[in-house]
Amino acid sequence: MNNFQELGIENQFIQALTENNIITPTEIQQKAIPFLLATGTDFIGQAQTGTGKTAAYGLPILQHVNPDLKQIQALVISPTRELAQQIAKQLFKFTKYADKKIFTEAVYGGEKIDVQIGKLRRPTHIVVSTPGRLIDLLERNAINLENVKTVVLDEADEMLSMGFKADVDKILGYTNSKKCNTWLFSATMPGALKEIIEQFLAEDAFKVEISKEHIVNQAIAHQYLIADIKDKVNVLSRFLTQQEDRRGIIFCRTKAGAQTLEKQLKAKNISAEAIHGDLGQRDRDRVMRLFKSKRLQILIATDISARGIDVDNLAYVLHYQLPDQLEYYTHRSGRTARAGKQGFSIAFVAPSELSKINDIERELKISFEKVDAI
Where is the Helicase ATP-binding domain (predicted)? Predict the structure, then answer.
């Protein structure tokens, strides 16, 4: 039996969930889905990336949609193009066996707006959009949100850290005037986000907070090795050579760090490509196509640029530079050990950074194994 039935999910979605091995609800799904199905009023869900938030809000949205009404009924806002694409793809998978077709369209910067306007002229029930592109469409009167009943902000803290607060304010000002329900999902609650909640969400908005100790994938082995900064690249190149044909992501804290590391590895004849904020959309798409098609084994990424990347069968995640924020460790390491498979997360740390490993262990309730430099 699929346990999502106990939460009130209809049979028309259960077969697709089972087919995608989504059987047992996560904590955020258990707490959010019954409420969002029953009432659907304003909601705040604080949970990390990788905890199943898309299904937590996506399944109630799909169940609320009236397929016979050929108009946009729900709006999902995400910080990046890749995450918008991933959300739309997952919603499409959920509707594989639906009684009637439910159409989702993703719109985002980096693609010609005229092409997306043309797509929106087709019957569309759910729109997934980045903030800037939605503002563009609204200013052109190219999108009709008159029948939207629910607006979701996914990864809301990331939208603010990427400079989208003014756009989010404008979008919520518009949707609130239409009396839409607002569902907000975020890993953290910075001050600017609390301001948005106070301004745009009801005082009695239902809130769910998932504690950090429940979010780390138990199939991930956490390791660290000590490497002096001057020898770090050499240790990394030996590590990557040992991995042979196994694929993984290397995380850097800054785009400058990612760019430098890409050049250093290529100088050692190691094929690696980096994605970061300075990379144009066409080049970013090229790199991601190579990585997803397994023609590229090693991807270098920053924390923000990696949002929305969904690649199966990654053997490892490597933290070449530890993240600034503790939550990002979970975001990063969650890229491996997906769909019940094993994986490992390894941090390259200088002797002065050992206290950060202790902080991660304490806060996330995980244990690191020290490994010797290769």
Answer: 34-207
The secondary element (H helix, E strand) that includes residue 258 is: helix 255-267
pLDDT of 17 above 90: yes
Give the per-residue pLDDT at 217: 56
The pTM is what?
0.76
Whether the CB-CB separation of 235 and 348 falls below 8 Å is answered with yes
List the beta strands (DSSP E) in the chain. Answer: 43-46, 74-77, 104-107, 126-129, 150-153, 181-186, 206-209, 220-226, 248-252, 272-275, 298-302, 316-319, 343-349, 369-370
User: What are the CA-CA distances from residue 143 to residues 105, 128, 146 (Å)?
Assistant: 12, 12, 9
**Calpha distance 197→360 (Å, rounded):** 29
**Average pLDDT for the chain:** 90
Q: Domains of the chain (ranges plus CATH)?
A: 3-213 (3.40.50.300), 216-370 (3.40.50.300)
Q: Which tokens go with 43? A: 């909601």
